[in-house]
Amino acid sequence: MSKPIRFGIIGFGWRAEAYLRIAKQLPHAFKISGVAVRNPSKYVEAAKRWGVTLYESFYEMARHCDFLLVAVSKTSVPAVLEELVTIQVPLLVETPPAFDEESLRTMSSFAEKNGQIQIAEQYPLLPHQLARMSLIQSGKLGQVQHVQASVAHGYHGISLIRNWLSLTDISCEIVGRRFELPILEVPYRGRQVQDRIENEVQEIAMLSFHNGKSAVLDFTRSQYFSPLRQNRVLIRGSHGEIRDNEVTISLGTDAYDTYSIHRIQSGMEGSLGPLSLRELRAGQECLYRNPFSSAPFSDEELAMVEILTRMSAFVRENISFYPLTEALKDVRLSLAIEKAISTQESVSI
């Protein structure tokens, strides 16, 4: 059995604490070497609570790590990477790697100089997305030419679209619109709400790629928090399609089948196991099996575990999974969508 991968975290926000929770439940796989922050005195109590060592110096912490996880605010990422450029340690950087044209140019220069940077994009690694990707890769849908994603905003949604369509060339034409809609007050991050109407912003973009493939990105941030707004997925191929968790495929001449992707969950109805996902199945076929079902992880946490697992493979075997160069393509498309929506004009890449 291999030793746990050792990593240090730069930053001590809510995302960093999410990784601390994961590592605490999987000590055989991951070991936190420490947390580096600008002002350690502010985080003494948090460090005691988590049982981690605080560092003020990235360099000192890096001596004890197989890789570093950068989990700071998006505006701080370029400056932090500038400091880390001389450290010969692989880097896992939280999203987004860039947020405007200036930071995109800065991060593009980092990508040219450093091939050891991977990006922690979790959406394609969520269990249901891995299950859908398994169906795409099986060939049962035939040629996938059109997708619609109403799952996540901006670069997150784009990462799903590119994954489903297997796109490396992002040359395309984009049109977009923004709408304001009424909705009952949304419980953002658990805030108390009343029975009042507020406005939400819905953004819709259509992308026509030069290779003939196309996509629609449709999202409102209320989907992250309000039960009144559900996610939607459409993956359309020549021989079938996926609509959310419903699958329709061709079985041959004038023969078709429709079935559902369903969850096999433990810890329910008298089960003494942890409340966790075991499998995602379509009939007798297993599309996704949770390798960490002994721990009570949410789907989001399972995606984060998958990121850490893939980062471990990158460190040990140099198997890249989401390099900075690819992540910046998603950012570039996201910025182009913002421009198309704000100008109400077609934008070409």
Automatic annotation (TrEMBL):
Gfo/Idh/MocA-like oxidoreductase N-terminal domain ranges (all copies): 5-117
Keyword match Oxidoreductase: yes
EC assignment: 1.1.1.18
Domain of life: Bacteria
A GO term, aspect molecular function: inositol 2-dehydrogenase (NAD+) activity
Keywords: Oxidoreductase
Name of the protein in its database record: Oxidoreductase domain protein
Organism: Paenibacillus illinoisensis
Taxonomic lineage from the root: Bacteria, Bacillati, Bacillota, Bacilli, Bacillales
